[in-house]
Amino acid sequence: MANKTKADRRAEAREKARRLQEQEAKRAKRNKLITILVIVVAIALVGVAIWSIVSNGNKDDANGRPDYDPVAVQVEPVVKENTEITTGFAIIGENAELSADAPRVDIYFDYMCTYCNDLEQWNGADINDLVAEADAEFVYHPVAILNNDFSAKGAAAFKFIAENSPEHLAGFHKNVFEDTDAVLNGRSSTLPDWGNIRNAASDAGVPSDIVDRIEDEADLEWANTVTTEFLKEYRGTPTVLVNGEETTAWANNDFKAMLGLAEPKDSTQE
Fold first, then answer.
1. How many CB atoms lie within 10 A of CB 129?
2. pLDDT band for position 147 (50/70/90)?
3. CB 237, CB 154: distance < 8 Å
4. Helix ranges (DSSP H) in the chain
5. Which is it for strands 104-109 and 239-242: parallel, antiparallel or unpaired?
6. Whole-prediction pTM value?
């Protein structure tokens, strides 16, 4: 075999370098495709996770609190004994009939009260079930003991909706607490106002002509009156009465068991 010249060796070296470059280019292209595929799969998995969270949110929120769709209700004003002052509004399901031995639950609340919000967020779904079937009569008494602007507006608006669009009262109540929950748990730094109240009413199904009247016609003087009456007998919110007797058992977040209508949740959970 003839000895290779320097030119031959240079040519072979260039050819070898070219093949290596081609191999490297193919490898780079393959790696790029693999990287793109991994990203696409990752995005798909994130999408599935988000969908799962949103879907599960129809039953429970991110904190495990049960969500629910408020029922349409019948509403009756409740007058304080030995006075002519309406202090609350009794609700049962729109097509339900209350039995003679159904327990009565009175709930005095302030829309900006942290523990009132906890009561609503953790027990709202159970209360909604009890109201729907008229297994208990719930009487809501909005008050404004925290001396802030929205407590009084919320209480006055509750009365306005009860009297002007009663079937939507439960939905309105839930929506207002969703706004205050955002403030009380740091998701919003803006105190709710009339705009939030109008949105809460509208989202609950209150007709627009009634929504437009809330700010002008809600009775803030009534909110002050019922708060004064409340403080003559009780100290703070929430105050819960079962058949006229004050109880703190609501803090167990098990209204059905509290009323003797179901076994305690802890004993029935697997």
1. 18
2. confident
3. no
4. 6-56, 114-132, 149-164, 169-184, 194-204, 208-211, 214-217, 220-231, 255-258, 265-268
5. antiparallel
6. 0.76
